[in-house]
Amino acid sequence: MNILVLIKQVPDTEAKIVVSGGKVQEAGIKWIISPYDEIALEEAIRIKEKTGGTVTAISVGDDLVQQSIRTAYAMGADHGIHIKHDQYQMLDAFAIASAIAKAIEGRDFQVVLAGRQGSDSDNGQVPLILGTLKGWGVVSFAKKVEIDSQKATVHVEAEGGEAIYESTLPVIITANAGLNEPRYPSLKGIMASKKKPIEVINFADLGLGTVSRIEILGFEPPPPRPQGRFIDGADPAAKAKELARALREEIKVI
Amino acid sequence: MAKILAIGEVANGIPKKATREITSVGRSLGEVHTLVLGTQAEAAASEVARHGAEVIYAVESSDYNGEAWSQMAAQIVREGGYEIVLIPHSWAGRDVSARLATLLDSAVISDAVEIHNEGGRIKIKKPVYSGKAFVWLKSTAAIQVVTVRPNSQKIEENPGAGKLEKRQLDLSKVKARQISFIPQKSTRVSLTEADIVVSAGRGIKGPENLYLIENLADVLGAGMGATRAVVDAGWCDHTLQVGQTGVTVSPTLYIAVGISGAIQHLAGMGSSKYIVAINKDPDAPIFKVATYGVVDDLFQVVPPLTEEFKQMLGK
Ligand SMILES: Cc1cc2nc3c(=O)[nH]c(=O)nc-3n(C[C@H](O)[C@H](O)[C@H](O)COP(=O)(O)OP(=O)(O)OC[C@H]3O[C@@H](n4cnc5c(N)ncnc54)[C@H](O)[C@@H]3O)c2cc1C
Ligand SMILES: Nc1ncnc2c1ncn2[C@@H]1O[C@H](COP(=O)(O)O)[C@@H](O)[C@H]1O
Question: Which of B28, B142, B158, B277 could lock B290 by a disulfide, CB 3.0 to 4.6 Å apart?
C-alpha cells in the first residue's frame, strides 16, 4: 500500500496571532504540522506497519516546511516532497490541491490521508478538491479506518451520529481528532531524519499559472469582547438567582 | 438581479435552521432559489418559501453522499445560471461545497460570518487561526461559492413563490457510499444549531457529576458540550468537544461550567454572543471573555441555578 499524506505547516496552536496593517505578523511564530495532519500521518504509518508499502509526506510551502517534512520522517515517513512556493499563504485551496494533483501525476498511491482542516484556515477543502480533480472517493472526518486491498471502510463522525462509508481505492480520507494518538518521534528517528533527502519541486515549474480564485483583501484582529461583570451575592444561591435575573432581564436570552 | 442558489438540509420535513438562514441571506442579495436535500424534503418547501425562496428544488435523500450531492447541485447551478451559491458551513455543507466549487471551476470562500455584496461580487469576513484573527476574502471565480457559519445570520420572514421542483440523486456511479448509520443516543438539540450551549469542564470532577450539566441543559432546551480535558478523561463522547480540535459553536448564550478557558477551547466558542462562566478561580482566563462571571463552587451554584430557570420557565 503506497500512502500519501498531505501536511500543512501552521502556527502553533498556542501562538499569539498579531495583526497589524491588515497582515498577520509572522515574527516569533513557532511553526508546527497542523494537529489533524499529525493524526493523518500517524494513521498512514500504522497502515504501513500493518500492510507494508511506503508513506510519502507532501507539503506546499516555503523553505520552512522542510522542517515539518523532517518531523514526518522522524515519525516514520519514507519520502518527502516539498512543493516550493515562497508565498504559499496567498494560495487558495484550489491552487494547493491543483499543485498536489500535478505533482503526483504518474505516481502510484492507493490511499491519501489528510487533516479534516488546517488549524490556520479552518477550511477543510484541499483534500476534497484533490479528490474531485482526480475522480477519487473522499471520506471526511474519519474516526476509524480499515483498508484492504480492494476498499476502504471508514467510520466518520457525522452530524447526529456515526456513519460508516465504503470507498473504492484510491481513496482520500481526512482525519478527525480521536482517530489515534500521534506518536512522539524516537531519538533514532530524529537522527535519521536529518540525513534523508527531500524531493523539491518548484511550484512555478508545475505549469499551473495563476490558479488562485480567492483574493485575500486583508486581515483584522477580532473585535474586543464587551467588558463583562462578576455577579455579586452573599452565597452561591444568591449568585445563581442574580445570574438568572440578569440573563432574563438584562440580555433577555432566557 | 443576481441569481442565487441556497443549498440546505432538511430532516423529517423540517428545514435545518441554517437552511432558513442562508435562504434569508440569499433573499437579501438577489433572487434566491433553494435546493433542499434530506428526508421528506418536499414537506419542507413551504417552510423554506417563507424566507424568500422563489423556487425550491426538493431532493429526497436519507443519507449524505458528497459526490452525488455535488454532481446534482453542479447540474442545477449550470442549468439555472446561478451566479452565487450559499451553503451552510455544517458537516455536510463543508464537504459538498468544496466538491461543488471544483466541478464549477470555482473555489469556496468558507465559514463567512459577514457577507457583503459589492456590485455582484461577494465579499466575506471569516475567522481564521481559530478565531484569533479575521480575514476578508473575495472570490474571483465566475460562480461564487460561499459557506456561511450557522447561527451567524438573521432569519427573515419574506415569502417567496416557493415553486416546487423535484429532483433525484444518482448514486449509481459514486466511489464512496454510506453503508450504515448509528444515530446518537441523545435527543438533545445539535451543538452547532443550539441557541444555548451548556458545557462542562474538568471542574465537574468526574462523570458521575455530568448529570448536573445535563439537567441544566435540559431545562434550557440547550445543547451540551465539553472541553477536551473532559473528553480525554473519557467522561463523555468526543462528539461533544467544543474547541479547536472539536466543534465550533456560536450560540446566543454559552454557559461554561468548571472550564478554565484555554486558548484552544476559546477557539470553538469565542464567537458566542453572550458567555457565562462559572468557576471558583477568579483568575481563570475564561472570565476575560465572559459577559457574566460567577466565582464560586459549581456544585453550589449549578443546582440552584437550574432551579431558578425551572421556575422562570414554568417547568
Ligand atoms: C493542539 C491542541 C488542541 C486542543 N484542542 C482543544 C479543544 O478542541 N477543546 C478544548 O476544550 N481543549 C482543547 N485543548 C486542550 C486545552 O489546552 C485545555 O487543556 C482544555 O481546554 C482544558 O479543559 P478544562 O478547562 O476542562 O480543564 P482545566 O484547564 O483543568 O480547568 C478546570 C477549571 O475548573 C475549575 N474548577 C475546578 N473545580 C471547580 C469547582 N468545584 N467549581 C468551579 N470551578 C471549578 C478550575 O478553577 C479550572 O479553571 C487542545 C490542546 C492542544 C495542545
Ligand atoms: N499547503 C499544503 N500542503 C500540503 N497539504 C495541505 C496544504 N494545505 C492544506 N493541506 C491539506 O489539506 C487539509 C485541509 O486544509 P485546509 O483546506 O487548508 O483547511 C490539511 O489538513 C492538509 O492535510
Answer: B277
Whether the bond into A170 is cis, omega within 30 of 0: yes
Minimum Cα–Cα distance from A22: chain B residue: B135
Out of 3.40.50.620, 3.40.525.10, 3.90.226.10, 3.40.50.80, select the CATH number for domain A2-206. Answer: 3.40.50.620
- Domains in chain B, please, with CATH? 3-167 (3.40.50.620), 191-313 (3.40.50.1220)
For residues A36 and A119, the model is more confident at A36
What would the pLDDT profile of A22-44 be if each residue is shown by its tens digit?
999 988 899 999 999 999 999 99
**Å between A158 CA and nearest CA of chain B:** 7
Q: Is A54 in the pocket of ligand 2 (CB under 6 A)?
A: no
- Rounded mean pLDDT of A63-86? 97
- Tell me whether residues B238 and A251 touch, CB distance under 8 A: no
Cite the beta strand spans of chain B per DSSP E: 3-11, 14-15, 31-38, 55-60, 84-88, 108-112, 114-118, 121-128, 133-139, 144-148, 163-167, 176-183, 196-200, 223-226, 253-257, 274-279, 292-295
Q: Min CA distance, A201 vs chain B (Å)?
A: 24
Q: Say whether A251 and B291 touch across the interface (CB within 8 A).
A: yes
What are the chain B neighbours of A12 within 8 Å (beta carbons)? none
